[in-house]
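Posting for a labmate who doesn't have an account.
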Amino acid sequence: MNLILFDDPSIRTALLPFTFTRPIACIRTGILTIQEKWERRLNTRASFRTDAYLQQKFPFHTTAQDLLINGAVCPDQTLVDTIKALPPHYFLVKDNVLLAANQPADAITQQNTIEYTHPVTVIDRTWKIFSSNAAQIKLDFALITAGRTSAPITDPHTIVYGPKENIFLEEGVSLRACLLNAENGPIYLGRDSAIQEGAMVRGSFALGEGAHINMGAKIRGDSSIGPYSKMGGEVSNVVVFGYSNKAHDGFLGNAVLGEWCNLGAGTSASNMKNNYDKVRPWSHALGGPEQTDLMFCGLMMGDHSKAGINTMFNTATVVDVCANVFGGGFPPTHIPSFAWGGAEGMVTHDLSKALETANRVLGRRNVTLGDVDKAILRHIFETTAQSRAWEKM
């Protein structure tokens, strides 16, 4: 079996800004990324079929034994068993969405198609990353912890509610006088992660390797904080891909942060309109707001973007890649890549300075911004120029 996770082009566009810098399958929802879910369940490594400018960082390998799986599809055991039983040269579909193909040799037809009849989770909109998160934490928790024993909680001042089996600590976890409530869902704490004094955490919750929950934080559940991130203040149903910080007070709910993001002290984002109306997040696929059935939707921030101290984001604000947002008032609800400014106006963030900042930020985690990453950011800068409308004024 040669596992290939492919990007459906229409879904890929709908998942911007997060797919500017990664294939769909590298999106985190639950404890794991979609890639990691499939690799664990199929016990193999994946390659990617994605946009050309990303292929050097995310390679594509093909053989005579290719198994192609839609990178937006989250696995469960029923789907995994069905795909394993898929005959060679057959396609598996659900409601006109291609889920998988085993050694595809011919075009898809009615004769070589099998319709999947069970429910399936497809992350085909940005808000589904957080709305699917609670269910995905539960599935990933069962997958990761099966047959394993949690490291013990040794801190005498940490308070635990809920079933013992709903809390799992990897080695090296540090807990200090915090409260863990796993009555409503599991809590998973990754290797060398830490929850500091006075923090309150409700499940479902996942904390990645090396990530920190800061003193006094309030984590209200259904949140995933990816590896080497720092989280403080009040958080509810938030997904952080990794290497990002919201270290200080301020509210963030029903939100997604990519990698290498930073929210300054006091930064908050609304997740509900004052009139209780349905929210309309910016859609790259539509080139404008998209009508949804959501009452709750907060900040969507792409990789390498930042917000200055006390920044206020309106409901369902979308910030693209390498943007720097600051100043008083509410900035626009769509902030394009490489924007610099806020409510009082914006200019283009100089590419060389943006790369210099990114290099400094990565260096703080002992990571290097290599030539491949620079080329990806340069491509995004060039191809998103038309979205920075102020340059035409």
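Reply:
Got it, the structure tokens are right above this. Residues 12 and 19 are 6 Å apart (CA to CA).
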